[in-house]
Specification:
Pfam family, one: Abhydrolase_6
Protein name: Alpha/beta hydrolase
Keywords: Hydrolase, Signal
Strand content: 15-25%
Number of helices: 9
Distance between the termini: 15 Å
Shape: globular
GO molecular function, one term: hydrolase activity
Organism: Streptomyces gottesmaniae
Number of strands: 10
Radius of gyration: 17 Å
Largest sheet: 7 strands, mixed
Strand order of the largest sheet: 1-3-2-4-5-9-10
Helix content: 25-40%
Length: 268
């Protein structure tokens, strides 16, 4: 397993239960893999969530011998979040597979463009903007999303308004294939996202030069499945479809892990 640099310490707010940007040590790799180390897998969460949503995927990747990093996405705006992620990626030695869920896909798209050792991008029910696109406009390009009417603005005194999903809409719009006992907790512990995240213009599109894989969630009500298919086709991504809600990494961690491993093996 490759050596990592010292942990990156950044002044970002920490939410209880959130995984921080700390390398999770992998299990010892089989002897056959020691001459060709596995790439580090970086899992980037999206809005209304935190890195704990990747827990099932993290466990499976570790068991398979992959080094894993699951950072806390600040959710403060596309350029700010992409800058944070690019800085983090710069502290990780060797090849990297970068995975984005939901809004995290947009962050990955911009951040990875400036990091030469990113060998593959994996999008999980995600935004995948091109350079010059505004995320909010991209989200509205195809019908099928029920997110906008489910959002509520949060009180803000700093001039940087945040939005969150109304708790009574969270299950149906965001995570309909998880138990309600679980989504009721997720709804009240969700991390709001800055409205600026959906108003800024993408400055780079890493998928234009880096191979990509895409998982379409056919039951997604947060991001339109039609938009997911459009983005994947536009990028020439290796694409799979799963009958799932938006949180496919939580309801189908085996399938998400398999897609990540496929990307990693194809780029070694």
């Amino acid at each position: 397993m490759r050596r990592h640099h010292r942990p990156l310490i950044l002044g970002v707010a920490v939410t209880v239960g959130m995984l921080t940007a700390t390398v999770i040590p992998s299990a010892a790799a089989p002897a056959a893999d020691r001459t060709s180390p596995k790439p580090t897998v970086v899992l980037v969460h999206g809005a209304f969530a935190d890195a704990s949503g990747w827990s099932g995927v993290v466990a499976r990747l570790k068991k398979a011998g992959y080094p894993v990093v699951a950072p806390a996405n600040p959710l403060r705006g596309l350029q700010a979040d992409a800058g944070y992620l690019a800085s983090l990626l710069g502290t990780i030695d060797g090849p990297k597979i970068v995975v984005g869920h939901s809004y995290g896909g947009a962050v990955v798209t911009e951040a990875a463009a400036s990091v030469p050792e990113v060998k593959a991008l994996v999008y999980v029910a995600a935004f995948m903007p091109d350079k010059g696109e505004v995320l909010g406009e991209l989200a509205n390009r195809f019908p099928g999303s029920e997110l906008n009417p489910a959002l509520e603005a949060l009180p803000d005194g700093a001039g940087h308004p945040d939005v969150a999903i109304k708790p009574d809409k969270f299950h149906d719009v965001f995570a309909g294939d998880l138990p309600r006992s679980q989504t009721s907790v997720l709804a009240v512990s969700q991390r709001p996202v800055s409205l600026a995240a959906f108003q800024s213009t993408a400055q780079a599109a890493a998928w234009r030069t880096i191979p990509s894989w895409f998982m379409v969630a056919t039951g997604d009500k947060t991001i339109s499945p039609a938009l997911e298919r459009f983005q994947a086709k536009r990028a020439g991504s290796h694409t799979v479809e799963v009958d799932s809600s938006h949180v496919v990494m939580m309801s189908h961690p085996d399938k998400v892990t398999a897609l990540i491993k496929s990307a990693a093996k194809s780029t070694r």
